[in-house]
Amino acid sequence: MNVSWDPDRYDALPLPHEQWGVGVVNRLALMGDETLVDAGCGSGRDAERALRQLPRGQIIGLDSSTTMLAACKRRFAESKQVAVEVADLLEPWPVATESVDAVMSVAAFHWLPQPKLAWNQVSRVLRPGGRVVIDAGGYSNIERLLAAVGEVGAAGKLPAWHYAGVDETVGYLSAAGLTPVDVRLRIAPAYFDTDQIYLAYLKDVVLHHLIDKERVQVAQIMGDRCVDYVRLEVLATKPI
Ligand SMILES: C[S@@+](CC[C@H](N)C(=O)[O-])C[C@H]1O[C@@H](n2cnc3c(N)ncnc32)[C@H](O)[C@@H]1O
Questions:
Q1: Is the pLDDT of residue 200 over 90?
Q2: For residue 221, what is the DSSP state?
Q3: What is the mean pLDDT of the segment spanning 39-50?
Q4: How far is the CA of 237 from the centre of ligand 1 (A)?
Q5: pLDDT in tens, 155-189
Q6: 201 vs 169: CA distance, rounded Å
Q7: Distance of alpha carbon 49 from its chain centroid, rounded?
Q8: Which of 87, 156, 162, 221 is deepest in the core (most CB within 10 A)?
């Protein structure tokens, strides 16, 4: 199920993604000269944050959404350090084998029905000694919200998200030849200040394919303007 992302409306929202991105960039512990892939870069918010710590580095942003990529290209129009490529993360990435020092990804891996394929690509593009940090929806993510969507009869309008758990992810990492360093689930509910903002968030970030009336019903069932996120946080390295 394709989602038509509107990067302007997306970026204007109070996105919990911003804090997830801060965490990912911090955990990367960049030295300043690395080459970094941002897998599912969207409009480039996290790449911009990482770039501040890469005065001599390079970033390759990958995403399959043409609207998100156009916004990302606009953001980095003046930068010679950032390349933005259209790519399906489930296909071979347009990045040379063992050519990058680090891979990051924020809020993208749960959009992949077969994350194993993407983990294999992470391993292929990383140089020995390289590292990967991701933050994505994890096992039992948004369970209450999904139950509310089911109650209004709109479950068939949801994308095929895949919320991997710790054991499953460690399995993918090991099979891909990566060493898990820290793989965990973190309960991270997000609350929104007004009904208007909550409904806009549901529309542009989570429940794209529902109609307005269904989103209002979901919001009424939830009752607390919450999106009950559970994050899968991964740090792994490629052995030397
Ligand atoms: C919730 S957005 C996150 C974007 C950005 N990382 C952020 O945190 O704002 C999810 C992104 O994953 C991208 N995406 C989803 N499935 C993808 C796939 N198979 N290949 C490449 N990108 C994908 C979407 O186009 C979208 O930009």
A1: yes
A2: H
A3: 97
A4: 23
A5: 999 999 999 999 999 999 999 999 999 999 999 99
A6: 28
A7: 15
A8: 87
CA distances from 87 to 35, 44, 62, 121, 160 (A): 18, 15, 6, 12, 19
SS3 at position 71: helix
In percent, the amount of the chain with pLDDT more than 90 equals 96
- Residue 149's pLDDT is what? 98
Task: State the Cα angle at 214 between 211 and 217, rounded to 5°.
Answer: 155
Q: Is the pLDDT of residue 4 over 90?
A: no
Does 169 sit in the ligand 1 pocket, CB within 6 Å? no
Ligand 1 pocket, residue 112 CB under 6 Å: yes
pLDDT for position 25: 98
Residue 20: pLDDT band (50, 70, 90) is very high
Residue boundaries of the structural domains of the chain:
7-139+162-190+230-237
CA of 148 to the centre of ligand 1 (A): 24
Residue 224 CA to its chain's centroid (Å): 25
Domain spanning 7-139+162-190+230-237 has what CATH number? 3.40.50.150
Nearest Cα to Cα of residue 11 among 195, 201, 161: 201
Q: Is 34 near ligand 1, meaning CB less than 6 Å away? A: no
Between the CA of 12 and the centroid of ligand 1 the distance, in Å, is 17
DSSP conformation letters of 76-137: TTT-SSEEEEE--TTS--SS-TT-EEEEEEES-GGG-S-HHHHHHHHHHHEEEEEEEEEEEE
